[in-house]
UniProtKB/TrEMBL annotation:
SUPFAM superfamilies: Composite domain of metallo-dependent hydrolases (SSF51338), Metallo-dependent hydrolases (SSF51556)
Entry protein name: Dihydroorotase
Keyword terms of this UniProt record: Pyrimidine biosynthesis, Zinc
Organism per entry: Litoreibacter ponti
Gene Ontology MF terms in the entry: allantoinase activity; dihydroorotase activity; metal ion binding
Residues covered by the Amidohydrolase domain: 345-426
């Protein structure tokens, strides 16, 4: 449909930092007009289809950085079709996909496959990342210029941290010359190798291999030093410890082009949730202390942490139904990102601030059009009820893999409808 009016909604504008009742007029896939609540819609739009939002929240669609879609090599874990359905049901309108697939996205051909496949199969927007080095081995940089021409929005080796600072500095220098964004995974690879949990009393009692939170700070400090040396645009994909925040704050104060993200799991869970070796809670980096979790929430509220993401990492039953130390890391999050984020709202983070981290800031960092509720912006929108309670059943998730740590938990926040370019791609039955 070329025109649609969404009436009686709570409009979230993350750029202006406002939440207000009103109406939204969509035309030709874009937001055409934003109207105040007291405007007589029936008189103004006599021949236009309308949808009464019933006073629920209407916000820009989520732009989720760091989604792993396992095509082509591990389609049994996740495909673009299932990831797209899960994303639409979770209010995600743009998936920023990771390159750590089989094969690695490190050539224009593999990137074009992912982009073409995602665009055809998934009902939303796909923004692919590419590897920083060939096969994520940390030895030889990829052909960044060709990959950017093919549509790469950023370059990252993910959790395969580049150990050789000379290789990383050369890659950053080249990225700087192209204006490319480099994403790092702050972690000292030597200290974190083989770790399953965060070091401390809990890890000792459970007898599990652990890593100090300082490993993250050490990895971040190294990356920031190289950023200062090269002038590259840099994004830390996941920070999770309070010890890392002063370094990030200093880098921003010094004027470095640096941003940082945090996963929803590190904002809503802590190390004690592992309990009796529950492998669905094994993620990378490992869950941290409650003090670290609270520090991350405060950093999101203050704007020090720029981005909140799902870090969607599907793992099949066989890779999770193992002893904790041997089980694969990762959790699905596309469909649970929004209701999990509502825990932050109920803890005091307001919706415009949260949506700045979920939608506006990712769009700005990656140079995407979305993330805004303003005239002329793409009509990528999510309509949701932030207070609707439910108990999560992992079997109802659309992802092929069901490895969510929120299984059986009481949650709040239901996505009612999702729109991409003004077209409805999900409607809750």
């Amino acid at each position: 449909m070329s025109e649609l009016v969404l009436t009686n909604a709570r409009l979230i504008d993350p750029d202006a930092g406002t939440e207000a009742p009103g109406h939204l007029h969509i035309k030709d896939g874009r937001i055409n007009e934003i109207l105040a609540q007291d405007i007589d819609i029936s008189a103004k739009f006599t021949a236009v289809n309308s949808l009464d939002c019933g006073g629920k929240v209407l916000a820009p669609g989520i732009i989720d950085i760091g989604v792993k879609v396992c095509e082509p090599g591990e389609r049994h874990k996740e495909s673009f079709r299932t990831a797209g359905r899960a994303a639409a049901a979770g209010g995600v309108t743009t998936m920023v996909t990771r390159p750590d697939t089989i094969p690695t996205v490190d050539t224009p051909e593999t990137l074009e496959f992912a982009k073409r496949r995602g665009t055809v199969i998934a009902p939303l927007r796909i923004a692919p990342m590419a590897a920083l080095t060939k096969d994520r081995q940390g030895r030889e940089m990829v052909e960044m210029g060709f990959l950017m021409d093919a549509g790469a929005v950023a370059f990252s080796d993910g959790d395969n941290v580049v150990t050789d600072p000379k290789v990383l500095s050369r890659a950053m220098t080249y990225a700087r010359s192209l204006g490319a964004l480099v994403m790092g995974h702050p972690q000292d690879p030597g200290l974190s190798a083989g770790a399953a949990v965060t070091s401390g009393k809990f890890a000792s009692l459970r007898g599990l291999p652990a890593v100090s939170p300082m490993a993250e700070r050490m990895g971040l400090e190294r990356d920031l030093a190289l950023v200062e040396m090269t002038g590259v645009r840099y994004h830390a994909d996941q920070l999770s410890t309070a010890a890392s925040l002063p370094a990030l704050e200093r880098a921003k104060a010094a004027g470095l082009d640096v941003t940082a993200g945090v996963s929803i799991h590190h904002l809503t869970l802590n190390e004690l949730d592992v309990g009796d070796y529950r492998t669905f809670f094994k993620v990378k980096p490992p869950l941290r202390s409650e003090d670290d979790r609270l520090a991350m929430v405060e950093a999101v509220a203050s704007g020090l942490i720029d981005v909140v993401c799902s870090m969607h990492t599907p793992q099949d039953e066989e890779s999770k139904r193992l002893p904790f130390e041997e089980a694969a890391s990762g959790a699905v999050g596309l469909q649970t990102l929004l209701p999990a984020a509502m825990r932050l709202v109920h803890a005091g983070v307001d919706l415009p601030t949260l949506w700045r981290a979920l939608s506006l800031n990712p769009a700005k960092r990656l140079g995407l059009e979305g993330g805004r509720l303003e005239e002329g912006a793409p009509a990528d929108l999510v309509l949701f009820d932030p207070d609707a309670p439910f108990v999560l059943d992992r079997e109802t998730l659309f992802s092929k893999s069901k490895n969510t740590p929120f299984d059986g938990q009481r949650m709040q926040g239901r996505v009612l409808r999702t729109f991409v370019g003004g077209t409805e791609v999900y409607a809750r039955a």
